[in-house]
Every structure is written in structure tokens, then in C-alpha cells.
Amino acid sequence: MKSILIIITTTLLTLTANNLRAQSKAIEVVDSLLTSKSNHELFTGAVLIADSNGVLLSKAYNYADREKKIKNTTDTRFYMSRAVYGFVGTAIIRLAQEGKLKFTDTLSQYFKGMPAGDKITLHHMLTHSSGLPHRDMLKREAQGIRTFTDYVPYFRGDTSYFKPGSTAEISSGNIVLLAAIVEKVTGMSFQAYFKKTFLIPLGMKNTVFAGADAAAFAPPQFAKPYAKSDYGLIHKALTMQKVDTDLLSMWTSTNDLYKFDSAVFFCKMLEEGFVKNMIKGYTTGPLVEGAFSYIWHKTHTWYYTPKGRSSTV
Description:
With 313 residues, the chain is of the alpha+beta class. Helix content is 30%, strand content 17%. The chain has two domains: 2-82 and 206-309, no CATH class; 85-192, no CATH class. It has helices at 20-39, 85-97, 122-126, 152-155, 172-186, 190-199, 237-244, 254-265, 272-279; strands at residues 2-3, 6-12, 44-51, 54-61, 63-65, 70-71, 78-79, 208-209, 226-229, 232-235, 250-252, 291-292, 297-298, 304-305, 308-309. The protein is globular.
């Protein structure tokens, strides 16, 4: 069984005025390719391509709900999966910018009894170099968990995978505890803080946490996940069950991602120095392609300032 890739992407393309014709042609090629893939059931989703001057392509392809013949739009909500990790990292960086925490703070400063808590720093957690174990978030209902802080006791009996700073391996444990730190520092649930600080100010009306916005969890607002089988495309009900019980189950649209991307990387929500620190490559490991920056996975990044594009970092 092969999964159909559902993509939400905000890609920044930067070309000079002399290349506008080539840029337009490139966009036509991308649109033609995705249309062809969509017609052959090889692509389903929405795409947004922009440069520093604005949106170059914003288009949706194929169906959000095949059974009801509901087509995708640029406002259709897609499941973020691990991409939501970047939102958690951005929240931590915003709090650091406000002077409410430091990247050198240790985990034990916030929660006692954590494995290697006096050696693990927020920097380690942000760069997946802490050694904290993965935490299965699917069973939260059975455990009576309602916030990320409720997860904290379940880490106290764990042991570290490796010495902090010695290597890097992606782990949801870092994300869960970073979100719990946001809750402790702000006195709010992570979802409430993120909504107040980012979603409302940026007008991200199509971005929701499924668990916190269960009433909105219905077509046509959400794209259903499908997989290819010997019997055609089938709805992946298990995936829907998983994301509906996951505290990090965020859904968003390409239009909203563009608002968030622009606000962060054009230094509207974060100061330039913090943006540079956020996207700098810090750690790598045997299973890591590229490097981990502050939660964001770095391969090659341009960022923008109010004065225009800055250097690669």
C-alpha cells in the first residue's frame, strides 16, 4: 500500500527583475506538472509559491473528500504531522526574545526528576540532541492527559537514549516537554498561548488544533487522508483516529502557512537575531540528513528582513 502524498508547501523563490519571464515560465511548469500528477491520481493537495514580492502560485488540486466530491481549495486544512514541531520551536524562541526563558536553561529548572535533567538544556531539546526518549501521544485519553504538562510524570521513569549533545535523533519527547515548558512559563495551555500569540494576530483562521477544536473537525474544512491500495484509493481512518487524539494534531492551510512563514522569516514576529539563531544548523546524527536548527530541519535556507533578502545561514 502506497500513501498518496498530501502537500502543503510555502517555498520562497527569489529572482531578479531580469528573470521575470523565466520565473513565470517556471511557475507554469510547476502548475502543469502538478495538474498532470493530479489527473493521474499521483498528487492531492494545495501549493503556494511566493517570493519577497508576494504570491506567485496559489492553487489546490484534486479532492479533499472523494466520497462527497468535495474539492481541495487554498483554504482546505491539511494535517501538519511533524511540521507542527516548528511551531513549538517558534513559540519557545518568542518567549526567549521576551526574556522569559533562556536557551541555556536546563530541563530541571522547569521540571524535577527528568532523566539527565540537570544536563539537558533547552538548546539540546530544540536541536534534538537531548537524548530524551520518544513519547507515544496516542494514548493520552486513556492516561487522562489534557495538557502537555500532564505528560511530565511519564518521563520521570525513563532513561536517556544518549549523552546530551553527543549526537542528534528526532524525538517527540523534546517537543512534548518544550510545549510543557511553554505552559509553565505562560500559565496557559500550549494551544491557547499559540492561538493568542500567533494565530489571532496573523489572522490564521484556518489553523486549528483538532483536539481543542473538535467541533470544526468535519468536511469540507479538512482534507481526508487517503492511501493507494489494490482496490483503489481508500480513506485512512486509523490516521484520522490518531490525529484526533494527539495534542499536537494541528491542521492548517497553505494560505495560513504563508501568513506564518512571512511573519516569522520577514522578522515581523521575531527579531532578526533570533531568526538567524533559529535557522542556523547546529546538530546532526547518523539518521539525520542536513542538520537540526531550532526544531526546524535545515538543509538550505534564505531568510528575509524588512530590507529584503539576507544571506544564507
